[in-house]
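Sample pair:
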Amino acid sequence: MSRETLIRDLMDRHENEKITYTCCTQNGCWDANCILKVRTKDGRLMAIETDDSINANRGREDAYMTREQLNQGMVQQRPCVMGHSWKGEIDAPTRITKPLKRVGGRGHGNGHFVEISWEEAIDTIATKLKETVDLFGENSILHTHLTFFEFSSFPLNPYFKGAIASWSDHSVSGTLAGERAHLGYEPAKNVFAGQGKSLVGYEAPDLFNSKLIVLWGWDPLVGWHGSVSYYLKLAKERGAKIIVIEPRYTLSAEVLADQWIPIRPGTDTAMMLAVAQVIYEEELWDRAFVERFVEPEGFEKFRRYLMGDEDGEVKSPEWAETICAVPAETIREFARLYATSGPVHLQCHYSVSKRHYGEYAATASMLLQAMTGNIACPGGCESGSVLVTPTHFPSLPDVNAEFGRAPREFTPYVCMVNNKMAEAVTLRPKYDAGEITEEEYRFAIGCPEGSPIPNLQFVFFGNNWLNNLQDLNKRLKAALMLHFTCGLGWHINSPTVQFMDIVIPAPIHQLESTDPFHLDAKRFRTGPGGMNNYMFYCGKALDPPGEIRPVEWFWTQIANKLGIGEKYNPKLKDVPWDKWDEEVEKLYRAAYEKWIKDENGALRAVGIDLKPWAEFLKNPVIRVPIEEPFHAFKNTIGEGAEAFLTPSGKIEFYSNLVAGTDIRKRWGGKIDPIPRWRPSYMTEPPRDSYFSPRIRDYPLSMITPVSLYRDLSCHDQNPLLRDCYNHRLWISPVDAKKRGVRDDDAIEVFNEYGCVRLHAYVTSKIIPGTVAMHFGAWYMPSEEKTEAMPYGMDTRGACNFLIGDVHLPHVVNSILTAGLVEVKKLGGND
């Protein structure tokens, strides 16, 4: 074939294509709202391309941009490999395209699905909602998975009593206690309720201000997509030193690190305490910052604990070495480098804090940043949730006003911590029978004082939620006990779909829908914490297959059946589904056209080009230059501002909130006022640590990092990605040899909670005594059932079967992501 023929064929292939810009926002990509340029033709997806709305046809934008331009954040927002792979989800052979009803029992192998009409699905769900409230009371409905931060994601909750709200979060659960107790920062109040103005995120260009960057349990090149990863690479090229502290030699360690410090998982608190001890002993703290922003008595109490005045044990590097297996010399030299290299961006990430007692590691990292003055300065960071930054736009189109929903009539009670659905369901019969007290039930599920006790009986699953949290066997047991279950599904073989009574076929919201994104975020999207200087409109690129209909259309029909359609969606309540997207776009257009009137001139003042709607859609991305990148507390750290909403108004190394209240009644358990290696109220070491008595039976510490080819558990079934990533258990050569395991052997990984089967990846990239099973693999059961696996032996490697859900008497706040396990070769000697 000649070159001319090849070019002509390619041009013919792309002739008359429709181009739509949209977004790959998916829960798990909090730092990124990447832009997808989607090409479609004759109703088919032709290509997904990267962002070309700025610096088009450029590979490395920084190759010709000045540092000042990069500081302004005028760069592309490029998707990762998953963003380019949505075609695999659209065309997947397991895709659900019609409403389904389960006939027979729930769960794999129990009953089967039959196709039903939309009318039957809607009538059944609406009837069951009313029936559940009538039978079980007003705190009986849970909508997953974004019921968190004292919020209910059940769409109808403002007008239909029955839903519960929950506290804590999935991602930042391990940092919340430390933020609240020591910094006075609480996302549920500071961000969502407007109580307090402090924001603790940072924007990617601020990394250029960092002289030292510490990635503590953080693998951003795999799990933190978007501009932050890009700017980390640029910061390294421009001279910043990067240290990775992590049990594995990660992709980020390989690409970014000047030094990798291997550490035993779960021992981060000990190393952090030793670093703080060196800083105290050698008087390396930032005196000016501490005198101004740190409560002095607590600062001294923490010093006394570290220096052994409290318990006779100095928390020195030599003390920490025996715990975390990092040489004392390394700890001491790291402490000196860290304390004298400011500004330092030390980000202790979720893998460190989402463990038993992990709240202390998160807190210790924040206190390290505070004592060195790095918690609230250019180039530093808060080291907790680090998610939210203010927008650079004077205003945004007010889409909510166009929908015209009625004012809220009800506010759901906060009845539990968000990760305790299984306990709330399985323990309720024991509470009803008087086998446990009300206080015991409240503590077990984190039901705050003053809130009613929930009686969960109806769960709407918004995603593959059963698969994605700890103690999976307990979670499946709870799903079998519920009065009614339903939810959204993409794949018929989803573990959560298998436990639904009614399945609603879900559109791929990135491409096939005008539905809001998670947390009711409209399709005018702004940049999140990583870079908040761009706004764009996410259009619908494709019609979904089969009988898939918009999710918001579905909820509007449910609202109509319940008699609240006029309140929930007055302008769209009578719109047929085939006209739905057209009418929704009219509301977005109306909001945009009101916005560009710019009656006070604020938009023009920052250089925004206000185009008519039709012209805007051709390139629906608007950017404004960042004058100065945001860092934690930047908007409140100034003189007289209320940056730290603690009892003292300062950062408290010794929490007066914890010391002065019965924190159990709010957090479901105990926590100490300062981060301790051995909490005063616990009688044994963490259950997921090397020092637990469980180590005799389960001698390997399992960690569960996220994968480059899965967004949480999304894409595990994507045929375009399954060949890219071989889901295997990482195990060191030392541990593999001891068990007679070779690379790619079939193995069984087990403990008292469950058992999974997969293959081994023998590698020196993980320290001895530690194994890694990447998070998000779907439960795929065989017909074999055992006492440990009553619902079928897992053949895929779903890590949550091996992670317990034991907290008490410690706080129940954190989702747990680690455990102790043993490994044996299948077919070998027992």
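The domain at 684-830 is CATH 2.40.40.20 (Barwin-like endoglucanases).
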